[in-house]
Structure formats: C-alpha cells, structure tokens
Write the structure tokens for this entry.
Amino acid sequence: MLFFNAESINGMSNEFVLTLSCPDRKGIVHAISGALLKAGGNIIESSQFGDPDTQLFFQRTHFSLDHLELLSNLQADIQKESIRLQMKWALHPASQKMRVMVAVSKLGHCLNDLLYRWKAEQLPIEICAVCSNHRDLESLTRSNGVSFHYLPIEESKKASQEDQLLDIVNAQKIDLVLLARYMQILSSSLCEELYGRVINIHHSFLPSFKGAQPYRQAHQKGVKLIGATAHYVTTQLDEGPIIEQDVERVGHQINHLDMARIGADIESRVLARAVKWHAERRLFINGSKTVVFS
C-alpha cells in the first residue's frame, strides 16, 4: 500500500511513523530495519511485541529520512516484505494531526478538557466538529472556534440521525470519533462502519451500577475505588478492546456529588491519554484487547 508519491512529498517533514502487524515469525524486525537502512533511514524510536496468545506481531517505528526522494523506494520495499510476511502496514508523517469529531450529550467535562488540551497543543489532533443530541454545550464549542452540529434524536428517526453523523464524518474527513459522555448507544451498522475509529469513555462501575446516577448508586454501596475506562467501540455495548483505565480511592467522608466530581476528573484524563496514544499511532487492536506502545 503506497501512500506518497513524488508530488505529495513537497514541503513534507522528513519524519514518519510506520505501523505494522502480521503473524509472528522470525526476521520481521530485520526485514523492516533492512528496508530502512537501504533507504538511508534513521530509527528514532521503535517498539515491538509478539503476542504468544494470538501469535501476532506488532511494531511501531518512528524514523527520519535524509532524502525524501527515496521514500517511494522504501514504500516499495516494505510492500514487497508485506506480501512475504502477510503484513498489514501504514505509513504516516509524524507531524500529521488526526482530524477528530467529538460526540457529547449534556455533560461537558470531557469535551472541555479535550478542547483545552488541543488548544494548548498537548494532543496531536485537530478538533474539527462537535455533534450532540442536545444544545447544552453549543456555546462552549463555538467559543473555541469549532463547528457545532445539533442532531436531535427521535426514537423513530434514530437511523436518520446516525446517517447525519456519518455524513459529517465523511465530509470533514474525520479520522477519529470520540464519545465524550455521549449518552446514546450506536447502532451495530455504525459501529461496524467506524470500527477502530471510535473511542468511548465511561465510569468503571459498569456493569455493577447500570442506569441513572451511577455515582449515587456507588456511594450508597460504600465503594472504595472509583475509576474510568476508555475503550474502542464495537457492536457489543461497553465491551470493546480496553485502551486505558485509572482509579482513585475514596472514603466514607465524601458524598455522591464529590464522588461524581472525582470521577469526572478521572474520565477526562483517561480519555486524553487514549486519544494521545491513538493519534500518535501507538495503539493496535489485538482481537478483544489492545497493544499499547505508550
């Protein structure tokens, strides 16, 4: 799969990220490093992992090229090796920012955190759009110079609402969709359409405390640990491959409102880490789990 030609490299940075996965076998690292050496590439950072359970190999390599005109030769050599090794691979400029759409409902802590980190250049992303089934976060979105799309949901027209959401994804050339406390369940067809491109954040009480007011439920049960989980979205509700998790200890002296505030902070930072790793192409879906080169 060749990504760049002589015309497209004009003005391009000389640093790239190569990601690959294939059945595990001897000689994979040697083959890739040999192709890089042949093209005059210099490896800046490289991580690899062979999973003994799935028998799959994963690698992420950040490298530079002194002569960009050799990029096409490098791609050709990697493509040749990919056929021999049954390898899936992708090559991207290291400076390329992922185009992101954020889906929200009424709770704005994750959206606000993402907007701040984006503006502060703490995340290698470009937030291109925010969509919501409510207008509560419209002013926050627009004040940050981001387009806001109000997509209300009527039970009989949910499929139409999802079609509008997908139209925005395609029109804006969105690389990643973030469900930042978007309190709607995506249809199986949309999950399949965007597989590997949607990340969700939720509190880690699931499935123990389902439904409304999970923090109140947790407080009533006297929980001692609260947390959050970021995961890829699949057709199985809240069971997609887990990317990142975090927890904090709580005690009897706080109420459910304090617990919710602590939980919101955990959710924000867990989602931010997941977004950063995905945008830096450090994540690989490995069956029902992930490989994270953090």
User: Anything to note?
Assistant: The radius of gyration is 21 Å. The longest strand covers residues 41-51.
